[in-house]
Amino acid sequence: MKKNTAFLITSFLISGFLLTTFNGFSQEKKTASLFKNQTELIEARRLTQIPDAVSESSAIAVTTQNHIWSLNDAGNTNEIFCFDTTGNLLKEILITNATNIDWEDLTMDDQKRMYINDAGNNENDRKDLKIYRIPNPETIQGNVVQAEVIDFSLEDQVQFPPPGSNRNYDIEAIIWKNDSLYLFTKNRSEPQTGICKCYSLPAQPGNFTAKLVDAIFLGTTNKEARVTSADIDLNTGELLLLTETKIVSFTDYPANQFFDGDMTSYYFSNSVGQVEGVSFVENGNLYLTEEGPGKNGGYLYAVKWKNSSAVAETGFEKISLFPNPFKDKIIISLPPGLCVSLEVFDINGTIVFQNQDFDNHLNLEFLMPGIYFLQFVAGNQNCVRRVVKL
Q1: Where residue 153 sits, what CATH number does that domain have?
Q2: DSSP one-letter string for 234-269
Q3: Do 75 and 163 belong to one domain?
């Protein structure tokens, strides 16, 4: 099978970090935690219309339950806006030394400093990626502030733009954790590969190269796979990724390896708009913001996060793989009565192996070192497991 050239380049670039990063984890922990990929339903309830001043809302950060911060995306003013849960515009702050090329998310650290992500990159051709850091906006006197600047590039991007089949360098979701920023891609590849990449970056002013640290498969369609925002609960460690159809949660992961934890996809049970911001709220709920139609503001939504529906048992949760990471072979253990076919994808979504009747001792010694995804299919259901080849 012809291998994807972009993947070969990526494999050489990341093979060093794979050997460093994954050898330190216990295989028992990874085997136990990788295989809970569950599906639940949630309802997003409209709270209020967002002020028209933020009609292209593409981010959210909540400083108090009734102080909600947002911003507009590409080509709009270099301002952040505060409004409340009744839709009243409370404050605007101008970032004097910033340009809004494509602002696409907000996050806050443990000192309540705010990070403004200017790394939206629809065409995957930008070489001027930035994140602006400002003090806690609640403490800013007046309506102007100067930001500290983090300039960065992505370590695995070598073409600007890359081919259409490998356009996965649009950063529209960021979080802060333990003095680092973690960046998540909105995959614009055609055809859609379903892969969301995660990069890490020091959370301090300067010029850096963002390191590719992980990747995860989120779905086969644009609505499922394109991540528009992220948030993390610094108390529990739960990470959220937002797409148009769902919120994906990661919990119980080792260190900062989010995608090695338990993964649950919460699909919206009701219709929502173009949601582009997600944030935890103090009472255990979530707020979502959406981009509005034309010059009008979209809606602020509330999600009751602690009262989701029951998990549907499919049998997939009992699939186990060992070892992981692996060198040549993976032992696949299936629950009795579960008949599945198997496809293996690389980090770019290219099928590198498929078999309708595979052996439980799967030989993948022909693959390059890197991250791969095993998709198990049974009837109209499927699940995906991530593995690492050393």
Answers
A1: 2.120.10.30
A2: TTT--EEEE-SSEEEEEES-STT-GGGSEEEEEEES
A3: yes
Range of the domain at 215: 38-303
Q: Whole-number mean pLDDT of the chain?
A: 87
At which residue do the structure tokens 């800013």 appear?
140
252 in a structural domain: yes
Average pLDDT of the segment spanning 43-71:
96
Each residue's pLDDT tens digit, 255-279: 899 999 889 999 999 989 999 999 9
Nearest to 199 by CA among 6, 37, 10, 40: 10
Q: How far apart are CA 63 and CA 282, in angstroms?
A: 9
The reply to whether 71 falls in a domain is: yes
**What's the pLDDT score for residue 189?**
97
Say if residues 114 and 106 touch (Cβ distance below 8 Å). yes
Quick one: average pLDDT of 275-300? 93
Report the pLDDT value the prediction gives residue 36, as an integer from 0 to 100.
47
Domain tally, the chain: 2
DSSP bridge pairs for 353: 344
If one counts every other C-beta atom within 10 angstroms of the C-beta of residue 361, the result is: 9
Note whether residue 25 is domain-resident: no
